Amino acid sequence: MELRAFYQEHYRAILGTTSVLTLIVMWELLLTFVIPLNPFFFTKPSLIAVAFKEQVIHGALWSDLVVSSRAFLWGFSLAILFGIPTGAFMGWRRRAEYTLDPFLTALYASPLVALAPLMIVVFGVGLLAKAMLVFLLSVFPFIFNTFAGVRSTDRLLINVVRSFGGKERDLYLKVIFPSTLPYIAAGARIALGRGLVGIIVGEFYAASEGIGFAISRFGDTYKLPEMFAGILVLMIGAVVMTEGMRKLEAFLAPWKTSQQSR
Amino acid sequence: MPPFIQSRNISVVFKPKNREPVTALNDFNLEVAKGEFVSIVGPSGCGKSTFLNILLGLIKPDTGEMQLNGAPITGPSQERAMVFQEFGLLPWRTVAANVELGLELKGIAAAQRAERAGELIKLVGLSGFQNHYPHELSGGMKQRVGLARALATEPDVLLMDEPFAALDAQTRDLMQAELLQIWEQSKKTVLFVTHSIEEAAYLSDRVIVMTARPGRTKEILQIHLPRPRDYEMRLTPEFNDIKATIWNTLKDELTARSEYGA
Questions:
Q1: Which chain A residues have a beta carbon less than 8 Å from that of B90?
Q2: Of the candidates B198, B193, B191, B203, which has an alpha carbon nearest to the alpha carbon of residue B227?
Q3: Could you read off the pLDDT of B93-126 as tens digits, one per residue?
Q4: Å from B35 to nearest chain A CA?
Q5: Chain B closest CA to A214's CA: distance in Å?
Q6: Among the partner residues A165, A253, A254, nearest to B106 by beta-carbon distance
Q7: Within an 8 Å CB–CB cutoff, is residue A158 touching chain B?
Q8: What is the predicted ipTM?
Q9: What is the pLDDT of residues B13-37, one digit of tens each?
Q10: Domain B1-79+157-232 is classified in which CATH homologous superfamily?
Q11: Spatial CB neighbours of B231, under 8 Å, sequence gap ≥ 6
């Protein structure tokens, strides 16, 4: 029974692929044979595929992608640069924690996309406003996860390094930093999702280019296949980045991979 | 000439927030000669570990003084090294890198560190595991790494805080035998905290029995068993007598504690 052995070996991948393919085929069949297609309101995978191909070859897809990525990278990098030191500082100094905590908790709990209009008023339409929105949304996971990582550093390991003559600098470099890294990587994964929301909402709200703008424009003009092509690009980007983060996490904390959850 | 290690009238009071202060050690006196193997037994919470931590330099006594070689101990130093009960290995470091920790903090060059670590890994029987991470090792192997790490900096005093308590009985027997062998060769001064009367009797030149909290020296017992010791000695009537003596001294302290409901 070679087939069974093959299934046993790869059944996770097989089941996952099958479910996705089934959904696509059902969608296609449903709209082709069951519901008479009104292309104004509905679209189907075959049309999306054609639109996607067209966009990739002739369309503005690539330039949109570049525009969105640039704003995203600026905001996300800023979030890393600001979030990690802030979280670390809060973890080391209880007074810093107590001072900053009310603001951070309130901001983290609130739907910050509500600040999109403000960003545009302050920074204008364009790269800066979008980057700031991405920053606002993605900075909190970095702050909180770095904070949690620093706080949960094992006291025993601190004592071990001290007992061998380690100075304060050694404690940071040899214990606190490496033990916080996996927390930061996990935070980055959350920040990624929030940052993508930031870029899309920013472009929905006020922009003249970018993936979010393209999706919104195609939607407004009832070009559903093209709109879905944009969404597809977004999904692919998100999955690739999230998986990349997961790989990074496993690389940074090989001792944690066995107990890692999704 | 002053004794090699001298604990003079040491008292330690812990003052936890919102709770009654706890006197861990009260007027604790002890003298240890160079090269001696001394075990400390006593009820839980009697301050045994606190005593080791003072010797290590991580805790400062409230009154009294701890001296090594006639000089007061003011902080950690590589002339003293601890083997921790919970191993205290850095999970992001390989076996070799863990063993090298003390040498690294001392500023020894990488090539020399590697060479020294290699010798010690061989000494504790972990050849071939240099590049393994702690999570890939069994408890016994982890504590071998802990022992190698402590020996790497060539300390004069080896402090061991219930080092084998987390190991299963057979691994424990094995580790005791190997510790004795290493001690016979290196003639380090060892202070060994344990809950096991048998372990204390088997390993030590002297056994210090401590009182219940606040801990003080109740009795000091010389163990007149020949060296080198072997496992068969544990089966002799003399050994049983020694165990009985320690047990009878300790017994009252254990019941004294239970009166406090602890």
A1: 157, 160, 174-175, 178
A2: B203
A3: 999 999 999 999 999 999 999 999 999 999 999 9
A4: 21
A5: 45
A6: A165
A7: no
A8: 0.90
A9: 988 888 888 888 989 999 999 999 9
A10: P-loop containing nucleotide triphosphate hydrolases (3.40.50.300)
A11: B173, B177
